[in-house]
Amino acid sequence: MLRALLVVGVALAVAAPGLAKSGPKIRLAAIAPAKVLGSGFHSGEAVRVVFVAPGIHKTRRVTATSAGRISSVYAGVSVDICASWKLTAVGSQGSRATVRSRAHSCGSPPPFE
Questions:
Q1: Share of the chain above pLDDT 90, in %
Q2: Would you give the DSSP letter of residue 41?
Q3: CA 11, CA 53: separation in Å to the nearest integer?
């Protein structure tokens, strides 16, 4: 029994680094105005953040903090939650993160009676 636990423990220790997703991540934090937050970039890295949605193609350049975080606000841009969108962040030191909206349909609301 002890040997089985030891084998499982070693297997988990070896697999753990692969289970943790490391590296840069970005997310849409607000929809009006559109705000992007990111983490996992290199300290001081110059990052180009691109936001693409129907009728919108905006680019911002930001610098990662010493903790590797970024923030970008797209003034005047509101995100239609029913539309598809894509965010891409590319750093000057090779960091890269992309996120897309999930495909979903927003039907018409039911008629009022």
A1: 58
A2: P
A3: 43
Tell me which residue of 96, 90, 89, 38 sits closest to 67, measured CA to CA. Answer: 38
Please provide the average confidence, as pLDDT, over all residues in the chain.
83
The C-alpha atoms of residue 81 and residue 51 are separated, in whole angstroms, by 14
| Spatial strand order in the sheet of 34-39 | 25-31, 34-39, 70-74
Measured from the Cβ of residue 67, the count of other Cβ atoms closer than 10 Å reads: 9
> Domains in the chain, start-ordered, CATH in brackets?
21-100 (2.60.40.230)
The whole-model pTM stands at 0.73
Q: DSSP 3-state helix, strand, coil percentages of the chain (rounded to 5)?
A: 15, 40, 45
How many other β-carbons are positioned within 10 Å of the β-carbon of residue 60? Answer: 16
Identify the DSSP state of 54: T
pLDDT value of position 58 = 95
| CA-closest candidate to residue 80, choices 54, 112, 61, 48 | 54
